[in-house]
């Protein structure tokens, strides 16, 4: 177990009355490779809440004055890996064929390949559910192979525990880390960042009232973790705050960066 997971497990145990270690496996892949110029995000409502995680990753990129990254968000409410026909998302002249410029004009995209990267997330309970954790393995492998066949890099997004079920964190962390290692793919540790905020500052309000979906603060945190993981860059002190209180945004930026550094074993 990485030092970050040991520390976080202790913090959670103190804050939540005792939890098992968050994961027994350390990630083998710790960098995504060259910065992508286009990303397709494949998932469910955890991605599309609050105007979509892509809007906030884009806000952080612009604040950092990094090159434009074309993003497509393909989501189905409540979906798991097995709901998505990833092969169809890479068909020519379909998703990603055109996009909208900042001046609201259409730009036709003619890249060598549609996407450089695919970030994928299963349903919030699927990696843990006795009837669905089998398909988690099967479809993670199938989709990773599809993505690579089209010249893109697969990345898995570790989702978070429900607010009232923090014990989910350990299983989700282990499942995503294990599948990332098996498929030689990067894992974005968003779930561990959520657990850290809940242990340190639960009043930050990163959950929606249903205790499952992210609030705006939660989506911002997930975006900051994704930015830090994919682009190997700190979001700390970036001026984009998504309209949140700057002090709260600054704290979430710090948690995102600490979590990514610790999870990947960086100094």
Q: What do you see in this structure?
A:
InterPro entries: SGNH_hydro_sf (IPR036514). Keywords: Signal. The protein has 267 residues and is α/β, with parallel strands linked by helices. It has one domain: SGNH hydrolase (Rossmann fold). It is 42% helix and 11% strand. It contains nine helices and seven strands. The strands form two sheets. The protein has a five-stranded parallel beta sheet with strand order 2-1-5-6-7, with helices on both faces. A two-stranded antiparallel ribbon has the order 3-4. Helix 5 links the parallel strand 5 and strand 6. Helix 8 packs across helix 9. The longest helix has 19 residues. The relative contact order is 0.18. About 4% of the residues have low confidence.
Topology:
Elements: H1 3-16, E1 38-43, H2 45-48, H3 53-63, E2 70-75, H4 86-89, E3 98-100, E4 106-108, E5 117-120, H5 133-149, E6 153-157, H6 168-182, E7 186-188, H7 190-200, H8 216-231, H9 246-264
Parallel strand pairs: 1-2, 1-5, 5-6, 6-7
Antiparallel strand pairs: 3-4
């Amino acid at each position: 177990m990485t030092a970050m997971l040991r520390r976080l497990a202790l913090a959670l145990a103190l804050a939540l009355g005792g939890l098992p270690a968050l994961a027994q496996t350390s990630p083998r892949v710790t960098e995504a490779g060259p910065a992508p110029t286009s990303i397709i995000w494949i998932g469910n409502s955890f991605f599309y809440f609050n105007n979509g995680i892509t809007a906030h990753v884009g806000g952080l990129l612009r604040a950092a004055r990094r090159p434009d990254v074309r993003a497509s968000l393909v989501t189905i409410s409540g979906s798991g890996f097995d709901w998505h026909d990833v092969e169809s998302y890479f068909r020519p002249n379909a998703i990603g064929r055109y996009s909208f410029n900042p001046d609201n004009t259409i730009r036709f995209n003619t890249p060598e390949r549609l996407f450089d990267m695919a970030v994928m997330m299963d349903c919030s309970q699927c990696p843990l559910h006795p009837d669905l954790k089998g398909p988690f393995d099967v479809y993670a492998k199938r989709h990773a192979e599809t993505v690579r066949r089209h010249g893109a890099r697969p990345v898995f997004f570790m989702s978070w525990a429900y607010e009232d079920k923090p014990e989910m964190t350990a299983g989700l962390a282990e499942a995503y880390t294990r599948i990332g290692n098996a498929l030689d793919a990067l894992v974005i540790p968003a779930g561990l960042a959520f657990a850290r905020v809940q242990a340190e500052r639960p009043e930050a309000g990163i959950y929606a009232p249903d205790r499952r979906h992210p609030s705006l603060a939660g989506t911002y945190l997930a975006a900051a973790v994704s930015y830090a993981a994919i682009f190997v860059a700190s979001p700390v002190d970036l001026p984009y705050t998504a309209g949140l209180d700057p002090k709260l945004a600054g704290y979430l930026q710090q948690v995102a960066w600490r979590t990514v550094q610790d999870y990947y074993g960086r100094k």
